[in-house]
Amino acid sequence: MTSLLAPDLQPRMLGGLEIEPEEARSILRPQKDERYGFGFSLNPYRGCAHGCRYCYVREYPHPLRGGEGALRPPETWGAWVSPKLNAPALLWAHRHRLHEQTVFLASSTDPYMPLEREFRLTRKCLEVLRDCPTTRVLLHTRSPLVLQDLDLLLQFGPRLTVGFSIPTDDDTVRQVTEPGAPSIPSRWLAMERLARAGVAVSLSAAPLMAIRDIPAFARRARESGARSAWAGRLRLLNQDPFYQVLAEHGWLFILQPDYGERVNAALAEAMPRPPSRRRREHLKGKAAVAPPLQLPDARQLALFQGDLA
User: Fold this and answer.
1) Which one of 27, 56, 154, 223 is CB 3.0 to 4.6 Å from 302, fit for a cystine?
2) Contact assessment for residue 194 and residue 162, using Cβ atoms and an 8 Å cutoff
3) Does residue 109 fall inside a structural domain?
4) CA quadruple 262, 230, 53, 169: dihedral positive or negative?
5) Local structure of 122: helix, strand or coil
6) In a domain, 4, yes or no
7) Pair 69, 36: CB distance under 8 Å
8) For every one of its 309 residues, what pLDDT tens digit does the chain have, with 9 covering 90 and above?
């Protein structure tokens, strides 16, 4: 049977990954809790090739195209991605909503998964956001692929911060928990390169995984140029199979509240502190330094449950 879909919407396979392009009906989703500082979340893709085994988004209801109400099983998370081909056009059409707002890109996918090399949806959305002069952007990724857009990121100036998700200092842990995501060393190096180039960078150890050397991890965050850092505890879904993964590897200690508190304390000690009042008086009349973006407190981004926009 001949497909009636437009050629650019035809599903295809790429190295075991099912790519199913789609035309989205919406692209901006209002943030529910104003304490978190961003007014909208933006996801240029549905699904994520990184396939992190703990990801809460795997339990979202993801419809199968043409499946008459059928949903993708959670265990297929990481095996499919739907690029939202009209995301930049939708964003442009709704740019009036972004005046003096902050956009979180992205809450339920990684905007720099490998498919971004082909589709460039994240870059095209960033080009729209660049032309919204009162809009701030918090770009969140696990991928050094973000470096391909360094020229564009620099055009935002202080309106943009790149947050790197680095939940462990051990790439062996990453290989078990985030099998399709870039290596931990590559993330540190990407953060360093952005910081040296003048892009504001932050660290989010969320959801927090097993860390071998907490003080050294905190020092590495500072040395890599992070202006701020936070650690968010993992919150498992009911009867989550990831619990057994933690048990098998002896990592159940990461679920203890005091573990996250110790990591956050080390990060707070390592991060540069704002100058004292006396120091601020001394600095008056000198070049101003933009304050670091205040990231969410130590909670997993599961606050975005239901965010499929």
Assistant:
1) 56
2) yes
3) yes
4) negative
5) helix
6) no
7) no
8) 334 456 678 888 888 888 999 999 999 999 765 445 668 999 999 888 988 988 877 666 566 665 555 667 767 776 789 999 999 999 999 999 999 999 999 888 999 999 999 999 999 999 999 999 999 999 999 999 999 999 999 999 999 999 999 999 999 999 999 999 999 999 999 999 999 999 999 999 999 999 999 999 999 999 999 999 999 989 887 788 899 999 999 999 999 989 999 999 999 999 876 554 554 454 344 333 333 334 333 334 333 333 444
On whether residue 41 sits in a domain, the answer given is: yes
Nearest to 41 by CA among 93, 109, 99: 109
- How far is 64 from 212, CA to CA, in rounded Å? 41
Position 309 in a domain: no
Q: Are 223 and 169 in contact (CB under 8 A)?
A: no
Quote the number of domains for the chain.
Answer: 1
Residue 259, token pair as written in the block: 């573990």
Strands 102-105 and 136-141, by their bridges, are parallel
Q: What single letter denotes the amino acid at residue 122?
A: T
Give residues with Cβ within 8 angstroms of 120, minimum separation 6. none
Beta partners for residue 13, in sequence order: 18
- Could you give the strand order of the β-sheet that contains 80-83, starting from the edge strand earlier in sequence? 12-14, 17-19, 80-83, 45-47
Spatial distance between the Cα atoms of 176 and 180, rounded to a whole number of angstroms: 10
CATH code of the domain covering residue 56? 3.80.30.30
Show Cβ contacts of residue 20 under 8 Å, excluding neighbours closer than 6 positions: 11, 65, 80, 81, 82
Q: Is the Cβ–Cβ distance between 20 and 93 less than 8 Å? A: no
Q: Which domain holds residue 19?
A: 9-304
